[in-house]
Amino acid sequence: GENVEQHPSTLSVQEGDSAVIKCTYSDSASNYFPWYKQELGKRPQLIIDIRSNVGEKKDQRIAVTLNKTAKHFSLHITETQPEDSAVYFCAAYSGGYQKVTFGTGTKLQVIP
Amino acid sequence: KAGVTQTPRYLIKTRGQQVTLSCSPISGHRSVSWYQQTPGQGLQFLFEYFSETQRNKGNFPGRFSGRQFSNSRSEMNVSTLELGDSALYLCASSLGGLAGGISRNEQFFGPGTRLTVL
Fold first, then answer.
1. What percent of chain A has a predicted confidence (pLDDT) above 70?
2. How far is A101 from chain B, CA to nearest CA, in Å?
3. Which residues pair with A64 in a beta bridge?
4. Which of A32, A49, A101 sits opposite B45 (nearest CB)?
5. What is the pLDDT of residue B2?
6. Distance from CA of A45 to the nearest CA of B (A)
7. Nearest by CB to B55, which of A97, A104, A105?
8. Residue B98 parent element (H or E)
9. How far apart are the C-alpha atoms of B42 and A103, rounded to whole Å?
10. Alpha carbon of residue A44 to chain centroid
11. Which residues of A touch B105 (CB under 8 A)?
């Protein structure tokens, strides 16, 4: 089955700096890659996603890039703010019935 | 539109008991997925239901089961509870199916049910 590895597990950045979280997947047939943000005590929320027919997608300060050849995708957050502090999860969907596999999460801390 | 709701929000059970959790998806969503979240294991996929049929299943023992009703509401049951079943159980809904050949799998999560097994 699919295996998704996420790095780093923790990340501390100064406010205003950029943060990058990377995920690698094993199933070359995976075709949908969402990212979720989970603040402490709250539910995960979809922040951005990308499909396999696209290499990059941006939404204001957030971007996701996909490299199908290397089988990895990354979340980029620019001009980080304290409210970006949360746990971020990547996921990959594969198979005819779109089975999902989540990464293990990255705890991002933005230091004011 | 109302979001995904889960009941109850908190549960305390003892080892050996069984428990049933409920999830009401966003109106119009036909797919419901269940996850177990623990501090050390992140988000673990349990199973997914679409139009009352289990489409996908994670690697959990048979003590974990679920079902989906014709109105897309879903229940998850855990029998013979163990201490290690203590976790936050999240459900998520999506439209499911295809639109223009693209899977409609953007998920929206509920607030979760916090299960404590003593």
1. 99
2. 7
3. A57, A75
4. A101
5. 82
6. 7
7. A97
8. strand B98-99
9. 8
10. 12
11. 32, 93, 98, 100
- Is A46 in Cβ contact with B108 (below 8 Å)? yes
Residues B14-31: pLDDT tens digits? 999 999 999 999 999 999
| Three-class secondary structure of residue B115 per DSSP | strand
Residue B101 has pLDDT above 70, yes or no: no
Length of chain B: 118
Distance CA A86, CA B16 (A): 35
Here the tokens at position B100 are 């223009």
DSSP-derived 3-state class of residue A48: strand
Q: Give A51 to chain B, closest Cα distance, Å.
A: 9
Q: Is the pLDDT of residue A49 over 70?
A: yes
pLDDT in tens, B28-76: 999 999 999 998 778 999 999 999 999 989 999 999 999 999 999 999 9
Single-letter amino acid code for the residue at A106:
T
Residues in chain A with CB shorter than 8 Å from the CB of B91 are none
Question: At A98, is the pLDDT very low, low, confident or very high (cuts 50, 70, 90)?
Answer: confident
Alpha-carbon distance of B115 to B118, in angstroms, equals: 10
Q: Pick the residue from chain A with its C-alpha nearest to B111.
A: A43
